[in-house]
Design a protein that fits this description.
This protein is about 65% helix and about 0% strand. By secondary structure, it is mainly alpha-helical. The N and C termini lie far apart (about 140 Å).
Amino acid sequence: MTASAEDSEEVPRKRLKFRCYKPHDEHLQGKQLAQVEATSIDNTVTDILNQASSQSADIDLNTLAPRKANWDLKRDVEKKLAKLERRTKRAMAEMIREKLKSERDIVAGAANEQDAAEDSD
């Protein structure tokens, strides 16, 4: 391409916009944007807070609180643990019965030996 071809194609220039900067140059002062006034949101915020406070009494805090990471595991294992607890209690009761029975047999055996010793005297 030649220089004349480049000149014929104009590249659009970006326009300067001064939002927060006040230029000192008189030529650039015309490109300064008008100051935007912030709107007051006090009434809006007050209305939203009033609505939220009236709704807060209706909300259950347990449903808002996040569940623990393992809540589903506890739920699934709970049935199995209940079954295991029953079996454990049954096994412990059986062991106690066996121990009492063996102690009774020992006491009965000792009593029989004592009776046998008295009879032989």
